[in-house]
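Translate sequence into C-alpha cells.
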Amino acid sequence: MADTTSEEGYEAAAARLDRAFARLEASVRSLNGRMRAHSRIEADTQKLIGERARFASDLDKAAARAKRLDESAGEVARRLVVAMESVREVLTK
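Result follows.
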C-alpha cells in the first residue's frame, strides 16, 4: 500500500512537472515572438528616423530654394519697374 501511495504521489508530481514544463515552453515561445516583434518595431523605427532626417534635409533645401526664388522674383519685379519707368520717360519726351 505504501508503494501504491508513493507511486501515485510520484505520478502526480510528474504530471505537475510536465504541466509546468508545458507552461514554461509556451511562455518561452510567447517571449520569443514578442522579442521578434520588438526587433521588427525597432528596425522600423530606425528606418523611420532615417527617412525623417532625409525629409527634413529635403525640406530645408526646398525652403532655401524657395527663398532664393522669392528674392529673384523681387529683383526681377524691381528691374521691371525701373524698365517701365525708363520706357515711360522715353515715350513722354
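Note: The longest helix spans residues 2-92.
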